Amino acid sequence: MNRSHFWKLVLVLLVIAWSAGEIYPPTSKNLIDAFEQQSSTPNKAFDEIVKKAQQLDAANTDRTPGITYSNLLVAIGTNDIRPFFPSNYVNSAVERDVTRGILNRVQRSAAGQFRLGLDLQGGTQFLLEMDMSRAQTNAGAMMNADFIAEQAVEVLRRRVDRFGVAEPVIAPAGGGRILVQLPGLSEADKQQAKAQIQKAAFLEFRMVHPENEAQLQRGVVPPGYVRMFEMVPTGTPGQRMPQPILVKRSPERGLSGKHVEGAGVGHDPATGSPYVSFSLKPEGAQLFAEITQAAVGERLAIILDGEVISAPRINGPIVGGNGQITGSFTDKEAFELATSLENPLAAPLEVKEERGVDPSLGADAIASGKTATLLGVGAVAVFMIVYYLTAGLVANVALILNIVIMLGVMCSLDVTFTLPGIAGIVLTIGMAVDANVLIYERMREELAAGKSVRGAVASGYDKAFGTISASRCSRHWSSPA
């Protein structure tokens, strides 16, 4: 073999190997299996988590991507899974919720290399708009619109991570607008996601009037206070009723959501009822301790977006910056409240445009696309072999390698595959076959003219190149009259 041809062959083989590596794995792995495989130090407790997650997954007939994530999260519960993974798996100093940080990394590694768009995978797209004038009032007049929009993107990303969406797209769209794409999100979860991404979660701590009941009976609203409503349980599970309450007009000593460090959901060991636990930043912890120390026996209202969530009585000074919000929540309500508290927005977001594709429709589109592509490529391959015999077989091999290289490059660039994109790939395959036909027909002409096989092959490729280039350019630039 000619030395130059040898190195060309080596280069081609290396490119093909690289492309195949970029494509693998083409489809997503089961999240629970990936969770088990990536654990570095599993033990009996870890095996119990995996077993419970598998049981929940088997019992659930809903096959949307976020369900397995939720089942795994339920199986983990309050267990600390950090010891089961390498110490550098996630940065505990940066991640607010280490458990979700680990699961999100496992999910990214388990995702297949082919990123499918909403039209194939299904899901929901929101175009959101923030009231920038209100956002600047809440966040501070010195913050400009671009900074607030970027901050909102990060907040939304942390909120969306809790839905178990593997490859969400969250990006500024200009003019205070934000584009959110949630592939694989079922219709059942769409309304919950919509509510979560719109909620501003502007948290305030306000003191309740010491003579709340007496003042309400007299129908008097003292200066500096405002009449609001607290949703209190009725005694029937899941039902609450509004009850008037007098609270101060402004947060006590400015204590608000900006002082919250993190939030999560816990369950009362005695009753099993969910509650929301929160931790405050050092400045907020100091304020909270001073407020509760000076107001033992009084009630402190916790107000979220202008609604009194809870108004517990202060039984003693609360130091350390940790507290709990109780209020007969359901698990879903507690989850949504904790997510909003931990990731507050400067102002609510309004949905300007909403588009959705059910995952089942996306699955049908993928199945139809696979069938059409296999039939089309198969028919072309059979034609090339029947008409050109050995040369047709060589063309088919080259065509397959061309597809592998093209898909490998697309996967390495994290290209999102959509129906129009797949149509473009099919068109590229057709043009590759068209090029082979031109080359082989030129080779036949050269052989008929009396040239040797080697000369005919060389002339076929050299002289057909100009025709192929001109044909592709004319197809690209021509337009209908």
Short descriptors:
481 residues, Gyrase A, domain 2, Alpha-Beta Plaits, single chain, alpha+beta
List the helices and strands and how they pair.
Elements lengths: L2 H21 L7 H7 L6 H16 L5 H12 L21 H13 L4 E2 L1 H4 L1 E8 L1 H8 L5 H17 L7 E6 L2 E7 L3 H12 L4 E5 L4 H7 L6 E9 L6 E9 L11 E8 L6 E7 L1 H13 L5 E5 L2 E4 L11 E4 L5 H12 L6 E9 L1 H30 L1 H23 L3 E2 L1 H30 L4 H25 L4
Parallel strand pairs: 1-14
Antiparallel strand pairs: 2-4, 2-13, 3-4, 5-10, 6-7, 8-9, 9-12, 10-11
Structure report:
The protein is an alpha+beta fold and about 475 residues long. It has 4 domains: about 30-110, no CATH class; about 125-200 and about 350-355, Alpha-Beta Plaits; about 205-330, Gyrase A, domain 2, CATH 3.30.1360.200; about 360-475, no CATH class. Helices cover about 50% and strands about 20% of the residues. It has helices at about 5-25, 30-35, 45-60, 65-75, 100-110, 120, 130-140, 145-160, 185-200, 210-220, 280-295, 330-340, 360-390, 390-410, 420-450, 455-475; strands at about 115, 125-130, 170-175, 175-185, 205, 225-235, 240-250, 260-265, 275-280, 300-305, 305-310, 320-325, 350-355, 415. The protein has a 4-stranded antiparallel sheet. A hairpin with a 2-residue loop joins strand 3 and strand 4. Helix 15 packs antiparallel against helix 16 (about 455-475). The longest helix is centred in the C-terminal third of the chain and has 30 residues, at about 360-390. The chain is elongated and about 115 Å long. About 30% of the residues are buried. The model is unreliable at about 475-480 (pLDDT under 50).
